[in-house]
Design the sequence.
């Protein structure tokens, strides 16, 4: 039983309250953790992008500043070099151009310029070191810008390709004391510059020419080419672009550096998103661990909580089964102060109520016959009744008064109960209902409350069985040294009123009517010595008996004892023998009653 | 007698002496493009029909170096004038020019009159000092005796002009475009000319603060 029950229990547990509670708790924690993780992850990405954007702006500014600083240094250096009064006249004397050209490399060397170009006042190139051309448009623009500069040290800056190399240029006037010529000084935009900026800002820089070739970069050459191979193009709004670079993602801002005559250079500043996300990823990993930890904790907590909640419920359920078995003795060992405790208390109260009811029922069973008890329980205890044919059996102990004088009251009661027990058993075995015990007398009904077609047969069989039982009881009593008991039984069949009789507070299922008195009278007639019998039945009983058992063979007043047994088809094996005893008057009845001794 | 004095005399003649029948005069007001009077502009009239008589002064014109500045800032002279650059400071100066009209350099010299140079080519000569970068002066060498430097009110009054056609030129150290026009001077006539010129911003080479360069005077 227990083994077969196991499988359904496991299945049931899956849908159990505990499982639902656990699922809910774990689900809530998991949802909260996932939401937190997603929010943190999203914010980290946003933060990283924003940090990179700030870094890139900073690097752009650093680039601008470093170029400005170097331009200023070169400008100051150039101005100082041109002030030399040995060199200054060379700018204004057309015959001294060769000398001027020879002087430029030493100027470049002394101020660490990569490029020095001397211009006449009108902008045409006097000399250049190293030799090469800067587009005239660039120079004209620089001169125009310098002429507009109202500062004491006017200068103009820009970018230009000189011998295909990108340079940052600064133009300063040569004064004697008015401006008599211009000097252009430049430094190369090369890998060294990119690396310097990278060291300062941590940002990678790549310069590209109009054909999108690498001019200078702080990146490994291959990576720089990959960057420039992307569809990235410089924009003027300096918007942040996301460029996938192999297994990495770079955020890039670009700047367009005009280099004159329709040329330009592009500057790309980039930072690896993954690199910036490293601390965020670490935080996310820790968060993930914390999440998993709290999930495990939630599961354990949920399990514990669910157990605490479901265990008493299961205990209660188990106890329900105990009670269903009718065991009101086993106590419910659930001591709690919460709602479940109150439920347990209610359960105990209910058990007590059930036990009380059962005790009542038991007492009912003992005090009334089970059939009557069942009818009472079924139909309720209502007054009222119905007329029906019932066979009434009265039995009484002979010489009980004498016996009672010889025994102690306890012994007497024990003996009486023993006797009544045997008799009751005999009556109930034949479908009779004990109506009441009246001292040592028994009144039993056949055919009520449950109608029985063979009530008379059953009554007579029961009466004979009682006599037989008494014989056996007497044998037992003889062994105990107690004098034998003797009984007298009267059986009558009559139409009586059956129902619950009594007050509204106390009822008895019983029958009333003349037939009951007749049965009682027949019982007392057994005392008559000349009848020589202990069992007397009325003609009505005989008639009912024979009508039922011998199919229409009317029981004659002188019915032979052997005529009936041959035709017996009733549950009882054979009809008893009836010996007519004549008629007896009965008090309250006009007609006398014909009686028979049954043997 | 310096050139300034000469102009004063000419102006006085124009203003107070009864005018000869064959002499006219002109009053030129120079303003910049903001309407401000321009001082230290040189207004010159070059006769177009006759060749003027150029009679440079016998004595050299003086451009002093005082308090580490040239003075005056602008000096108009007739071609052939000799100019001296006396050093009135306690320190030494090295005056030079890289202008086409007169390339020269006077090596470092101390207090005293110093060298006197002849300016025999027309043109503008920008003077500088190799020691003191901020020192600047201009000599305007002209092929006409009819010229005058504007005063603070921007006015240059030229008189005793033989009637006829002239080319009127205005020069200024920060002039952007040449200001040239033709004028006709009639006898007994006082022509009034207002000339607006465009000047570059005055970026002027600034003199170092006193603490740095003004210790010796």
Sequence:
């Amino acid at each position: 039983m227990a083994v077969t029950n196991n499988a359904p229990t496991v299945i049931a547990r899956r849908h159990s309250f505990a499982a639902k509670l656990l699922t809910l708790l774990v689900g809530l924690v998991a949802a909260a953790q996932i939401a937190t993780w997603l929010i943190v992850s999203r914010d980290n990405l946003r933060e990283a992008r924003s940090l990179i954007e700030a870094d890139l702006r900073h690097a752009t500014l650093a680039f601008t500043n470093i170029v400005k600083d170097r331009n200023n240094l070169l400008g100051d250096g150039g101005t100082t070099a041109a002030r030399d009064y040995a060199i200054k006249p060379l700018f204004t004397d057309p015959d001294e151009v060769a000398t001027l050209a020879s002087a430029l490399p030493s100027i470049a060397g002394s101020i660490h310029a990569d490029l020095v170009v001397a211009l006449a006042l009108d902008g045409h190139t006097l000399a250049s070191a190293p030799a090469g051309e800067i587009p005239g448009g660039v120079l004209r623009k620089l001169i125009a810008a310098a002429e507009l500069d109202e500062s004491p040290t006017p200068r103009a800056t820009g970018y230009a390709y000189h011998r295909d190399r990108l340079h940052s240029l600064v133009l300063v006037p040569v004064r004697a004391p008015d401006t008599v010529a211009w000097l252009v000084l430049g430094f190369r935009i090369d890998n060294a510059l990119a690396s310097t900026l990278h060291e300062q800002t941590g940002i990678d820089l790549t310069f590209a020419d109009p054909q999108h070739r690498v001019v200078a970069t702080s990146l490994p050459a291959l990576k720089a080419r990959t960057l420039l191979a992307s569809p990235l193009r410089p924009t003027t709004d300096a918007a942040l672009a996301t460029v996938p670079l192999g297994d990495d993602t770079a955020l890039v801002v670009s700047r367009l550096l005009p280099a004159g005559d329709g040329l330009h250079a592009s500057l790309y500043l980039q930072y690896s998103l993954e690199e910036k996300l490293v601390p965020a990823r670490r935080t996310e990993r820790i968060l993930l661990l914390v999440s998993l930890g709290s999930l495990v904790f939630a599961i354990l907590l949920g399990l514990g909580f669910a157990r605490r909640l479901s265990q008493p419920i299961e205990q209660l359920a188990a106890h329900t089964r105990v009670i269903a078995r009718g065991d009101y003795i086993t106590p419910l060992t659930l001591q709690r102060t919460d709602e479940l405790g109150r439920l347990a208390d209610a359960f105990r109260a209910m058990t007590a109520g059930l036990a009380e009811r059962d005790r009542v029922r038991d007492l009912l069973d003992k005090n009334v016959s089970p059939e009557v008890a069942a009818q009472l329980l079924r139909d309720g205890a209502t007054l009222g009744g119905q007329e029906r044919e019932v066979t009434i059996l009265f039995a009484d102990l002979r010489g009980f008064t004498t016996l009672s004088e010889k025994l102690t009251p306890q012994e007497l009661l024990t003996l009486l109960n023993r006797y009544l027990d045997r008799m009751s058993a005999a009556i109930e075995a034949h479908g009779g209902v004990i109506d009441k015990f009246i001292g040592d007398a028994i009144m039993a009904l056949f055919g009520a409350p449950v109608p029985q077609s063979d009530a008379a047969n059953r009554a007579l069989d029961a009466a004979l069985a009682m006599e037989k039982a008494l014989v056996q009881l007497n044998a037992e009593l003889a062994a105990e040294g107690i004098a034998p008991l003797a009984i007298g039984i009267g059986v009558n069949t009559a139409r009586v009123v059956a129902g619950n009789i009594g007050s509204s507070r106390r009822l008895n299922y019983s029958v009333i009517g003349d037939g009951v008195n007749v049965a009682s009278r027949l019982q007392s007639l057994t005392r008559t010595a000349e009848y020589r019998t202990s069992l007397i039945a009325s003609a009505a009983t005989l008639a009912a008996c024979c009508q039922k058992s011998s199919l229409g063979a009317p029981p004659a007043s002188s019915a032979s004892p052997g005529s009936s047994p041959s035709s017996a088809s009733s549950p009882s094996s054979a009809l008893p023998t009836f010996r007519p005893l004549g008629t007896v008057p009965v008090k309250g009845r006009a007609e006398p009653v014909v009686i028979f001794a049954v043997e | 007698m310096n050139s300034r004095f000469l102009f004063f005399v000419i102006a006085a003649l124009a203003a107070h002496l009864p005018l000869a029948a064959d002499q006219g005069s002109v009053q030129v007001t120079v303003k910049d493009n903001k309407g401000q009077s321009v001082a230290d502009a040189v207004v010159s009239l070059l006769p177009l029909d006759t060749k003027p008589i150029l009679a440079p002064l016998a004595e050299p014109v003086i451009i002093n170096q005082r308090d580490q500045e040239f003075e005056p800032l602008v000096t108009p002279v007739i071609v052939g004038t000799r100019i001296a650059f006396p050093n009135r400071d306690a320190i030494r100066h090295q005056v030079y020019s890289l202008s086409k009209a007169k390339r020269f350099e006077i090596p470092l010299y101390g207090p005293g009159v110093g060298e006197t140079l002849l300016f025999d080519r027309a043109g503008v000569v920008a003077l500088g000092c190799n020691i003191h970068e901020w020192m600047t002066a201009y000599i305007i060498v002209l092929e006409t005796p009819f010229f005058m430097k504007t005063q603070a009110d921007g006015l240059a009054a030229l008189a005793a002009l033989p009637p006829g056609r002239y080319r009127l030129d205005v020069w200024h150290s920060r002039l952007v475009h040449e200001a040239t026009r033709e004028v006709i001077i009639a006898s007994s006539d006082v022509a009034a000319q207002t000339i607006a010129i465009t000047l570059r911003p005055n970026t002027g080479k600034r003199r170092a603060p006193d603490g740095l360069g003004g210790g010796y005077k």
